[in-house]
Design goal:
With about 325 residues, the protein is an all-alpha fold. The chain has 13 helices and no strands.
Amino acid sequence: MHQITGKTLLGFLLALTTAVLWGVLPIALKILLEVVTANTITAIRFLAAAVIVGVWLGFRGKLPTLVLLKRPKLAVLLAISIVGLLLNYILYLTGLDRLSAETAQTVIQLAPFLMMLGGIWIFKERLLLWQKIGAWTLVTGLLMFFNERLLTLIAQASSETLGVLLVIAAAVTWAAYALAQKQLLVTYSSKQIMYLIYFAGALAFLPVSDLSPLVTFSVLQWSLLLFCCLNTVVAYGAFAEALHHWEASKVSAVLAITPLVTIGSAKVLAWIWPELISAQQLNGWSLLGACLVVVGSALTALAPQFVQYRAARKVRKLQRDVL
């Protein structure tokens, strides 16, 4: 069983770095989608990540061996991980093309919630009271976020409706990837798994990409594309390192603030650079809904900590009574 180092501040800073990078990412992707296809962005991101992680693993002599995949169970798990994350990337980008960055990032918060449900179903994990409260808070927050548009989304088949459905599908496929990866970690390290996924993703998306727009890219567009490529590696690297130093539930709770980072970043960028991006106009109920999504996601992640804390308090109380 992996033991954390207990470096709380470092773990928090790494988790916060991941939240900020993931929060700003959809804004950069949204701008790039105006000039290049989702397939092309995904292919370039996977290729860059495969090269960077592959070189790093090669120098350390830790490139994954495929001999182990002769075991049917491992091969199936890897296939689920690869297909799940590849679908997550392309579905999210395709949905983002029809939505604002703020909306896409709020809806994708369903992913860890769906992963929790998958853990209950597959690994027979117990759903705690605070997780139930967190789940209902998250769903309530999503409904409040769409308060003005909810009836339109349901009653009319609009581009935004399709976008929301695509991002929900992206959340489902991410949960499938995460649950499969959880089992694969017994055999491969997280970096080895990600390398195999990145490599497969590059092979899958490069043939259906259109690289011709890159010739006319401006300095800003190249900078955004480079940021998206590095974001893939750095954000996941910081996430993995945060888990090395801090409890997974606390890391997940920090990552829950990602939608607020997106909303805040979009408003700041729209104020500084209005010709580049326009922030979505959210009313008070929508902002409150986004906050509830964050609270619900954090409660779901921190529920096991609450249970452990209460159990520890009972033990200490019994020890004091005995003494």
